[in-house]
Structures
1.
Amino acid sequence: EDPYLMAEMTVPIIKGIQSKNVATCTKHFVANNQEYDRHWVSSNVDNRTLREIYFPAFKAAVQKGGALAVMSAYNPLNGVHCSENPFLLNQVLKKEWGFKGLVMSDWGAVHSEAAIEAGLDLEMPEAKYMSPENIIPKIKSSELDEKIINDKVRRILRVCLTMDLFNKNRTKPTIDWDKHHALAVKEAQEGIVLLKNEDHLLPFNPEKTKKIVVLGPTVDPTPTSGGGSAYIKPYRQISIFKALKKKAEPDIEVDFINTDRYPVFSKLVEQSIFYATSDLSQTGLKAIFFNNTKLRVPPVFRRIDQKIDFDFGTISPAFGVKSSEYSIRWRGYIKPEKSGRYVFAAESDDGVRVVLDGKTILEDWSDHAARKNFAEVDLRAGKVYALRIDYYNNKGDGIIRFGYGIIDESPLEQKLARIKNYDAVVIGVGFNSDIEGEGHDRPFALPEEQVQLIQQCSELNDNTVVLLTAGGGLDFAPWIDQAKAILHTFYLGQAGGEPVADILLGKVNPSGKLPFSIERRWRDAAAYDYYYPPAVEPPIYSADFSSDPKSITYGEGIFLGYRHFDKMKIEPQFPFGFGLSYTKFDYDDLKLSVKSIRNGDHLKVSCKITNEGKLAGAEVVQLYLHKEVNVLAVEKELKGFQKIFLQPGESKTISFEILPEHLSIYDHVKEKWEVKPGKYQVLIGASATDIRLKGEFLVKP
């Protein structure tokens, strides 16, 4: 939403990663803002909007961060695919910004040989168009200048040499896993945002809150990340429920209620029992491996697997099997102990098919990122069923997990009846790597069953706390009044439930601020009228690789996020930069170093922040600029922020420096950045709508 915030956050992480001799790749360049039909929907963006909104983070990554690689996006930009766009790659990235690293395509994002001269240096995951067969004849016929290829080679070698990849004596670094985990927990503690805290329910008072019940789809296990390329695999993690139970005082009871019909997926995989023979004399499943994706003979390896719980990554799954383009077939039997309705669940990257007694009950036979599929079947106790699982991996990571178990058909009302006996209810809701992944746009609303869960729990217990797991904002309207406290935890990654438990129990004071605005309704969003397909309630989201060129016009221009809400006088559900604390902060004593400047001058701004509460805490102080100039401009825009930690009663003075680049506006007619003369206002606040201090200065011609 905010280009300044993105740029400021991008530079340090690039410098940190590359300081360890690991190259960073900044992606996806550029305007890859929707996943629906992402290969063919052109993002049509005017030049000023590109320069002021979508380019700054990439420019900072290259010029300030020193990023060694940039990845071009799947989508076309103004009708030309980003991997084949000379304006984007040659003119802006390499010429204007002076980028010396390599430009690689996203996987399968090249559609023609135009990429060769457009500025792309590396086609991924293989050379389909930028291949020797296509390039060499062009050089020999003088159709292609060999200097273009030499430049690509130099860029690739420059990255390798900078990272010391050809050093035979390069050693693998020693990693302090405990230290890394502690850092992950600390980062999550500071990033979680307290959105609501009615009657100061949080932190839980240990004298009054002796019984806590935890429920909902994200509390055990707790999702670590979104899906697709955002998916991470923590080496250590604890769920929200288990962390809260572990960290609570001994005299505080913490219980869990599974409100889902299905058992937890990880438990399905772990607890499933298979037999290799029909007489049930041997446990496991017979696995046959093939060096093709079609399960075609001859097989190259056989073995017995007790469980199907594999993350092969990009290595061979078995002796003699390739690291990609392979398939596996498991055969065996199951014998349910109870009669009833069972769920069969599979997570795969890529295709999977499940056949029970000769009938296909689950099929997702296509190339895709890791995702889960479920099927329900009625089974009879004591009967032996023949089972077959087919799987293939084409390119990239290989993942296959499978399990089955009986469904809990108990009415939800029956499960929830006892929560009225608890002092507080903690509900985990939101999304996961399946809903919020890659290749599709996720919905704005929570799943209906999650909304109903919040509403039912609040009717039974007033002290209801909602923990939200998601990568962005969503529709709070149907349930916000039923929640007494709300924490936006985002995706907790390596940290797991530890930081959430710390905040609930008061061991940590929340200090995170929203890096985006959250609208009250989907139709309030700046992009509502410009989303493809036309915005509807609920939004359509689908991965449609139809090869049918389409386009969306970024009609909101520079007015997105809080800029849009300011312009349209719309009150968001939660504003950009918003976040509550267990304490209160006072803003005072704003000072500007001068009252007027000229183009090229710097201006210093300072103010005093005081912790007026009884608890130690941190505040993120935000500086916005309002420009009264003779061109179209936004009401205000972020140009500085600082996080300050204060003990109760403590005051500190913080300072900002306003630079010429903070005052600049891109003149699309002159095609250059300019500082326009006029009156400027400094706005210091706790969010985009909570401005505490104001000051003015003049920019002279």
2.
Amino acid sequence: MHFSELEKLILDKLSKELPRNLYYHGVHHTRGVLSAVSVIAREEKVNEKELNLLMTAALFHDTGFLIKYYDNEGEGAKLAGKLLPSYGFEKADIEIICQLIMATSIPQQPVTLLEKTLCDADLDYLGRDDFFSISHDLRREWNEYGKPHTLLEWYEQQVVFMNKHSYFTATAKRLRVEKKQKHVDEITLLLSSSNKIFKKVQETETLKRILDKTHIISIDTIQILKNIELFTASSDKVLSDISSLLKILQIQKNEIIIRKGEPGNCMYIIYEGTVKVHDDIYTIAELGTGKFFGELSLLDTEPRSASVTAITNCTLLRLDQDDFYAIFRKYNEVAREIMKVLINRLRSQNTSIVNEFKTRERKLRSLVDERTMELKETSENLERAFSEIEEKNSKLELAYKDIRDSIDYARRIQDSILPVASDMYRIFPESFILYKPKDVISGDFYWFTEIGNGQDIFIVAVADSTGHGVPGAFMSMIGNDLLNHIILGKGIQDPGKVLTLLNQGIKQSLKQTGKMSDTKDGMDIALCVFDRKKNTLHFAGANRSLCFFHFEKEGNHKKTLSLNEIVSDRTAIGGFTPDDYVFNTYSETIAEGETIYIFTDGYADQFGGMKNKKFMKKNLITLLDSIKMLPMNEQQKILDKQHVEWMGETVQTDDVLVIGINYTRD
């Protein structure tokens, strides 16, 4: 059963083909259910085969939304029944998967442990900290699909639904019931004070008011966007496109817009009204018309650092992260501005300089206004104003140089821990390393060493750490140190045992204890051990396979190189992988002239081409097959050229790392 390829296919299909107004049932919901299924199933001691069936059912459980909105579970089961035979699933397993999909119908009535696990994962959010934001997305979605609710009506319905709902597995009850009840109690308290907190609004009148103001909002928004750091240098054309993607929201007085700790995926602009930014009862700031908040959530999904509540009835404009990335990919100038923002926020000491810049800018604007009113400017004041600007620019230039120097220093540190490529070329003259970091520093890294007096053992690995840039580089340094400790320190040479110990080391280093609140960081890796004395190849992988071109005889004399892909274990190093997980070792006989390739996912995941799609792993393997007989240095040049041509004007998606080795014994 080839789940990893199936997962990429379905998630890509959902991402591209689901309606954009599925604010709740989007591809992000399917990803969340897959994550929750993995946690609950492990805790419930579900075996590997059953876990594979569960993960497949979770992948397909909302695909029916591609066909219709209501009663779509049957459509998802039909799609699963049609596709799964092509991916190695047997008929009996497909029937179980279809039953699991149908079990998610509301009201849920699961019977088996697998059905209970999937149902609990599907409604996992009811007992999580991000319940209110997800509930808000579901209300918006229902409003789009013929089930409009005022905020008061919605909360009343939520209380009824949550009181009737029950979690079924012991794991979900332990992790979610207490928090879910707190949400019910909080909503009940709000409803009991509804006469003071909520004002019922006729939906038709509200909609008419919004429609009447849409054109005005569009014009005003362009001016507001110019004041937002991310878009200051953008053209009116870019700002107009962004304005067309903004969603208009009507927020009631005292309604919570953002909760501290929730993952962020959008920013807000205040068109009318006032909000307060607060941490519990402490008010940090009050923001009025023309201000904005939550803009950093366009760049990542880190938890919100503070809560935001409406002080008055408000009209807000919301920009979602997906829409922002669409603009990001379309306009290079936006990408350049984002890089500047990231650099300016990389180090904490930059904050004081930015604050000083804003203060000086306000003073300068005030000075210009005064001069405009007086219609008289003196040469002395103009010189002072220009001097302030030059001083500001000089400080910003120094800050940028300081940050850039720090990043370059981090690159030199990372370069120093990477093996010297010439050492591998000495052992295998016909080999190459194609290494193209996305940023100055990389989350991908390679590792190799020789063992034995006659250098009979050669070990090589490629790894893809979580993230890229600075976060990925930190993970790569941890991984490099652990490989040195396991292989060189402890003398472990069996690749499966190396990855088993690496998984334990990563989880210990990052304090990953199996709780859902733990970090999910880790890495994918492919590790090969060449025994040149015995002409054997041993391999183990975590979500990274090995492409092995071996000889097959044709007739009595001729030989051809045929592909044998050795599939890795379908789990990562660290993250949700259990401490006691044992990675498999695969062994093959290898002859002189046979070729192996190991690589991270950056090459295959690069967007580009005529339709701006991913290059895909199957196309990479086809490319390798077409160049396998060429000298290895020529292969490296062709791979690099193809990557550049496919990318075109698109930015590099991820770090790229490909290693090819034509095996020789001496």
3.
Amino acid sequence: MAPPRNVVKIAVQMRDAIPQLIQLDQAKPLAAVLKEVCDAWSLPHSERYALQFADGHRRYITENNRMEIKNGSILCLSTAPDREAERLLRGLQSESREGRREALRHLLLLAPDLTFAREVISRDGLQRLGTIIEDGDDLGEVLALALRAFLELMEHGVVSWETLSIPFVRKVVCYVNMNLMDASVQPLALGLLENVTLSSPTLGQLVKSEVPLDRLLVHLQVMNQQLQTKAMALLTALLQGATPAERKHMLDYLWQRNLRQFIYKNIIHSAAPLGDEMAHHLYVLQALMLGLLEPRMRTPLDPYSQEQREQLQALRQAAFEPEGESVGAGLSADRRRSLCAREFRKLGFSNSNPAQDLERVPPGLLALDNMLYFSRQAPSAYSRFVLENSSREDKHECPFARSSIQLTVLLCDLLHVGEPCSETAQDFSPMFFGQDQSFHELFCVSIQLLNKTWKEMRATQEDFDKVMQVVREQLARTLALKPSSLELFRTKVNALTYGEVLRLRQTERLHQEGTLAPPILELREKLKPELMGLIRQQRLLRLCEGTLFHKISSRRRQDKLWFCCLSPNHKVLQYGDVEEGVGPPTPESLPEQLPVADIRALLTGKDCPHVREKGSGKQNKDVCELAFSVSYDHGEEEAYLNFIAPSKREMG
């Protein structure tokens, strides 16, 4: 006869004792279960003991998580978390260096468990760790262990980062600024300061004032990839916490110190593979660089500004007045105004007063900046573009100003200028770190592409929107290839002619239509069982291989990873935390299990609980697209295993 549904067969281990094989009644209070286990081994005071999972992080069993115990689970009897916390915190005060080190090692092993972490925190464990960190008596392994344990306990969110004292933060800053510091300490100190900066504006200002940018540049230029990554993380955190004016000043200084060139040559093109965390921080840095353009993008032209009127005249003169000559010399004021208005229309402005075209935001003054940059950095190409089109009388002229304004809007949209940084994205473009004035340089390539495409399409003014759609497709397809330099981008985008775009569109349309043709549908129905079998086999194989996922908190992107895979017999999902840079773990080494039979449903997008919790801001759009959750039976309640796919390809 099969046991009741709420009874599971498990093994319980204890050091130097024969394991017990018991039937655990999940309806029985945990205290009663513990007493029975202790009685079987003749152990008094069962309240001094607790059950833990025997593998992985050895999490304590509580009334909240006991339903995770399944048939075949192996548990171990250990000291209760409150008593273990007391013992280890006493060990931190040991006069023996070795005693303190052993206590820290054990504390670090148990710190990921929330039950244990709460016991430590309630006994002033964070303050005791803080004392070790502040005293700095041992700048080697003991300090590194204390920092790691402190970070692990804070990660639970039981205590706010804003509660940290100024002297404590200053001491951690000292470890970052010190020379000849232990290599294991500084990445941890940088990681702690990153958390502080992202969570507390007040303490973030302290970190900003105490950690010189030059010191972060030193850390970025080391060969230690972990130290390099953590330095970049703190740098992007400081930039995110700065005001727009401060951010511009900081980035200008970093660029003067050749940080851009160093990133391009020594990080992006390093022999070592670029880690996911570094890729995310480079994405954030790129977004902040492009974000400097937002004020110009959102500022309309002021018709009463003398400087802006002069810039418009410089644009006109560069196209129609040879150097040192003035076409309007000797003309009356009315004739000169009439001539200027005609030349502005030839330049491609819709109004004889060009200020009216640039009142639209976006792109505002950013479009004027782009046009001026093109006219000054590529004067021959600029003159050729304008004169070639202004002299045509067959209605096929390409309006330079109108095209530039719309192209600036398009580029801002494709590059998400002014949008908040995503918590998960790693989508940076290497070419933005390989070029000064990268946005304006990209505009110069793109405006010449637009003129080329206009001629290939033999477009007229009525076709303007169609041309912009084609140019958008050309730019989007090429940006998606992530070319490593602007020259490579130029080569690839110019190879994507209007004819090639049409061919790609036709291929995609034929593929879509072909799959719907009656003979194809009939053949598909015949092959469907076999195809479904192959698809099922391939997907099961992919699930068994497993995937690395990032842990995402409600506050920020985490650098922690976890791995999930399907067991070889397809009956259990196995998962657990892993370290970055370590190869995929074996299924047997993963501590957590979820029987497939307990799974209720698969949720995606906005239906996922971790997406609903994060709200609907722009920065969470990509999170929504990559989110999925597995709901499963957790006793009488429904629980969730939440995921953020590494990419849209993996999501598909």
4.
Amino acid sequence: MIQDQLEKGWIVVLTTFPPRACGIATFSNDLCQAFDRLFAPELETKIIAMNSSANTNLDYSDKVIGQIRQNNRADYVAMADRLNKSPQVKLVTIQHEFGLYDGLYGDYLLAFTNTLRKPLVITFHTVLPDPDDHLYHLVQTLVTHARTIVVMTDASRKILETTYNIATEKITVIPHGIHPVSFEPSHKAKKHLQLFPKKTLLSTFGLLSRSKGIEHVLEALPGVIGQHPNVHYLIIGVTHPVVLREEGESYREFLMQRITELGLKQHVSFHNHFLKTEELLQYLNATDIYLATPLNPNQAVSGTLSYALGVGRPVIATAFAQAKEIVTPELGMLVDFQKPDQITQALLALLSDQPKQKLLGKTAYFKTRAMTWPNIATAYMKTFKNFVPSLHSYEKHAPVVKMDHLSKLTDDFGIIQFAKLAEPDPSSGYTVDDNARALIIAVRYYQQKKLASSLAAALIYLNFLHFVRKSDGKFENYVNQERKLSHNQNNEENLDDANGRTLYALAVAATSPDMSTQIREKAQSMYEESFSVADHFTSPRAKAFFIKSLALQINAQPKAIYIEKLTSNCNFLLGLYEVHSSTHWQWFEPILTYSNALLSEALLTGYSVTDNQTYLDIGKKTLDFLIANTFENNMYIPIGQHGWFQRGGQRHKFDQQPEDTASMIETLRTMYNISQISHYHELCHRAFHWFLGENLLSQVIYDQVTGGCYDGLGEHEVNLNEGAESTLSYLSSRLLIA
């Protein structure tokens, strides 16, 4: 083993794993990929693969570091001994399902847990509600060996508490994960797959077995097709390997016979393949209504049901344990077991009400965003850290910079203001605020990557700023969909902040040596022509942006007028501080609102070009005050837009905005660059982790699929729209993080 591997940390997962065709294998692969995407290579997952007698020669990837024959008790002991001796192994987690481990109820697993000395977390995929004595004591023993037990539903938690007498504090509920995909109507995927493009598609997915209850769906269909002849039912998946070994394709043959008997040959088909994740998601996207009809009321969880809800499809499900908990009337419909007539009625209700069908699907998509794999991986890591303190030293790494969503929001005129989910909303028009932000991002990204596309984008944003500039040098903010200035809206608002930001963006472009001569000269000309606009600023944030612009100009060409204006505007902020600050309120205003850190950053920036110690002292004091009021337990918590924080009043925490996080990150980076105090560098990264799920909802705000950023964090849910301000705030932060 090479040395760099010895220095890494491992989370070892005992589970089945691909290429073995098994639901637990798919789950483990999805979870490990999400975990590694966040934490590898410093901390990564490794697999101990469980093999049945029929799966002894599988071609595993190098992620699998060991194998156990499930019917060989000695393998369990030897593997636990091996893990005990490995310094890389920080924690072991077992994916538990009945049938994966030999012995009565899989009690061979005790040979492993009795020997293991590493911290252990066990995930129970199934919790049986009526145990006999042997099962009861087996579960009790496994629980004593584990630091915590993870289950996927509250129903499973309650069974452990009431039936197995497991202490509540020993149980953690983390739902089944889903893939982070964009919401799309079914017709796109149907066209891509060339799959019944003109039909209403029903589907069921999973390893085929008699427990799926598919025959009851078939019996329900004649009553549906009579009224909706355009319906087609697709049964996706190969036969379960254990079923195939024990009874061959007898269940599939039985279903095919029933299809013939019921006259459904033109309305039902099989897709007899074990699908890779990408293929599965395409088929689910092509689906209009998903059917989950297992026959076991005690089935704790169905990954296929979770995945269907996750792509935003309405579901009809039998009332098994997970379905009763997750399939509310907002998302779909529950039916009794083995009741084809109820399936018929449920399908007719949805097929006859297209608006309701679409609403259920969209609601399913919204309600399941907390279940995306990045959020689930974050939840597991949070749980692991509770029991293994050394894991706190492993931090999430910043995702690769992805400009796709920014490009999608940008047309040949500028960047569109809002989005509906991830789709640009042209009716929202454009703003100078967003285009100034976008110009800054384009310049910074070009500085790093030297891509022609960034240079072209910078010119689009710069031309927009030129378009909204009035003859007196001021910049209008709002432009409508028809690309005409929205004079009424512009006249109703104070545009100081938008003008200040625009001057800063122009200075960024004008003073960047990497930019083309055309862009630099045009930006500098516009800056000088609008320079006097700042004389009329009354907003502290507008003045702060102006200070930042002046600092850039001074570093490029230290004109006396620039130094004079910078000093006077910094002194203005000092004056505000003198008026409003007190021993317990070290701030420039009597309230903390949005982009607060910008004010401290302006003074710190002023110090960097003047060496005025007062600017540094007050910049640091106010930043430290802001840190004290926005970091709790090493988590960044922006001031909530819903109520702000008035001096002497309540500090509001929700409706947190990405813009505020971006402002804090930039200020902490500035303070670190000036002081070289590592504390500020560490806080900078902690604040960035707000985007990656280290927030009050433990939900990832950055969308790794699109490269966009969600619009805000509410008290109970994330605003899933990915508009310009939020996306640019994330990108601004990401480009500052090394």
